[in-house]
Amino acid sequence: MSRLIAGVDEAGRGPIAGPVFAACVILGPEHGIAGLADSKQLNEKKRDYFAALIKERALAWSVASASVAEIDQLNILQATLLAMQRAIARLPVMPDSVLIDGVHAPTKIRIPVTTVIKGDALIAEIAAASILAKTARDAEMMAHHLLFPQYGFDRHKGYPTKAHLAALERYGATEIHRRSFSPVKAIGSSND
C-alpha cells in the first residue's frame, strides 16, 4: 500500500487586508493532473481550472483560514501556521506525512512534517495546495469587494498597491484591514 503524502501551502501573508488561507491536498497516485505549478506562476483562469480539477480528482483536500483578528492577535506567521494546522486537521483522510512549503511548520501536528523551500515549484501536492489556498482567498476578497467597492479588492486582493494605499488614506481602514500592519496602523479606522 502506498504512503499518503499531503502538501500544504498558504496564500495571503503579504496583504494588509483579509484573512490568511492555507490548503492541504493529498493527490494520490491516480490523480492524473498534469501541469500543476505554483499558483503565482499561473494566471487566474488557469488557477480556477486547476482548482476545479484538484477538487474533483484529489484523494482528499481541505482549505482553512485564520481571521484578521487572529492575524492581529498572534502575528502573521503564527496565524499562517494556525491556518495550516486547521487545513491538515480538516482533511477527511489523514496522511502518513505532510510536506509544507517554506521553512516554518505548525508544531501541534502528530504526523511527520517536512518543510520544503520552494516546495510549491517542486512538489505536485504543494503546488495543488497553493492553487486551492490562492483561489479560496481570492474568492473571499471578491466577496469583500462587494462590501467595500471603493478599496478595489477585486484588483489587488488586499495587497498594498498604490491604489489600495490611496483608498486606505482616503476612506480609512475597514474591519478586514490588518491593524497590526504598519500601513493600516498609520491610517486608523474608517469608523473612528
Largest sheet: 5 strands, mixed
Task: Report the mean per-residue pLDDT as an integer.
Answer: 93
The CATH homologous superfamily is termed Ribonuclease H-like superfamily/Ribonuclease H
CATH class: Alpha Beta
Strand arrangement, major sheet: 3-2-1-4-5
Helix-strand makeup class: alpha/beta
Report the total helices. 8
How many strand elements?
5
Q: What is the H/E string?
A: EEHEHHEEHHHHH
Overall geometric form = globular
Q: Please state the second-level CATH architecture.
A: 2-Layer Sandwich
Terminal CA distance: 60 Å
Q: How many domains, in number, for the residues?
A: 1
The CATH topology annotation reads as Nucleotidyltransferase, domain 5
Description of the structure:
With 192 residues, this protein is α/β, with parallel strands linked by helices. It has one domain (5-142): 2-Layer Sandwich (Nucleotidyltransferase, domain 5), CATH 3.30.420. 43% of the residues lie in helices and 16% in strands. Strands 3-2-1-4-5 form a 5-stranded mixed sheet, with helices on both faces. The longest helix has 24 residues, at 124-147.
Features:
Nucleotidyltransferase, domain 5; 192 residues; 8 helices; 5 strands; alpha/beta
Helix-strand layout with pairing:
Blueprint: E1 5-11, E2 20-26, H1 44-57, E3 60-66, H2 68-74, H3 76-89, E4 97-101, E5 113-116, H4 119-122, H5 124-147, H6 153-156, H7 162-171, H8 182-187
Parallel strand pairs: 1-4, 4-5
Antiparallel strand pairs: 1-2, 2-3
Helix pairs in contact: 1-5, 2-3
